[in-house]
Specification:
This protein has 284 residues and is an alpha+beta fold. It contains 9 helices and 10 strands.
């Protein structure tokens, strides 16, 4: 098999080698950009991977869904659609989270100095301006967690720049903690809602009604694909308007709601503020 240019042939060989090791790969265009949606997938017509943020059903064989297109299937990598991308592509990328890894992307020398002083040593790969520190273990990705530092793991891609030096170290809590930008507890204290004087039985009559409401609220937050903060606030408002005045809500209930919100990327501080705003709006 021949290729349009030798270096692109090297890209294909690199991709197949990584795939054989279980690392999902994808081609990138110039400028470190993924390939845009093909005609069949334009405007999410395929019904999968909306905004390239969540994997979903899609029968397209082209690498046109950003990080979600990453694959370790040799047949996909060498398919006609992918071969066209390899001919046009500028470099190879991989999905760290899909391989159970996290890349701490250090963009400059001050960031590298910070990492050397605060993070455990692990495998390092030189980049154009800095270094990639690679840990064993996946986590949520985030940009600018501190000056010059990005985290690339789940739902993200990173350029393949070689195997680097040193053994992989287990992902430390120090790196996970970079996502918590405010010194607030990871779990909220039980929220006490002022309860108006009420006589007679609780209008919910059965704990199953409240349980069903909390379960539906958690599901609503979990299924939010955009405007997550607004979805969290709206859900908190709905829960409080239905269950907030009878005294049924407990700290365990609010902890479930907060945990669902934090799993979608909300900070504990944002959760607390959204809950307080909902309480205030309802005049509780």
């Amino acid at each position: 098999m021949t290729h349009a240019a030798p270096i692109r042939g090297e890209h294909l060989a690199t991709a197949l080698n990584l795939a054989a090791e279980g690392v999902p790969v994808l081609p990138l265009r110039a400028g470190k950009l993924p390939f845009g949606n093909c005609r069949n997938c334009a405007d999410n017509a395929c019904g999968g991977r909306p905004n390239m943020k969540t994997p979903g059903p899609c029968n397209c064989f082209a690498p046109c869904h950003g990080w979600a297109a990453a694959t370790s299937s040799p047949s996909a990598i060498t398919s006609r659609q992918w071969m066209r991308a390899w001919r046009e592509g500028a470099t190879v990328a991989y999905h760290p989270g899909g391989a159970g890894m996290t890349v701490v992307d250090l963009d400059n020398q001050p960031a590298i100095a910070w990492a050397r002083a605060n993070l455990p040593a692990t495998r390092t790969v030189a980049t154009t301006r800095g270094e990639h520190w690679i840990y064993r273990g996946a986590m949520t990705s985030a940009n600018a967690v501190r000056p010059g530092v990005d985290i690339k793991s789940l739902m993200a891609y990173a350029r393949w720049l070689g195997y680097g030096e040193g053994p992989l170290t287990a992902l430390p809590d120090t790196v996970r903690g970079l996502l918590v930008k405010d010194p607030v507890p990871a779990w909220p204290a039980p929220v006490t809602v002022p309860v108006p004087a009420r006589s007679g039985r609780c209008p919910h009559r059965t704990p199953a009604y409240l349980e069903r409401g909390i379960t539906m609220a958690v599901q609503r937050i979990t299924e939010a694909h955009s405007s997550v903060h607004a979805a969290v606030y709206g859900t908190f408002l709905a829960v409080l308007s239905t269950h907030g005045r009878c005294g049924c809500l407990t700290g365990a209930h609010t902890a479930r709601l907060f945990a669902a919100a934090q799993a979608k990327g909300e900070t504990a501080r944002h959760c607390t503020e959204a809950w307080a705003n909902a309480v205030h709006r309802l005049g509780m």
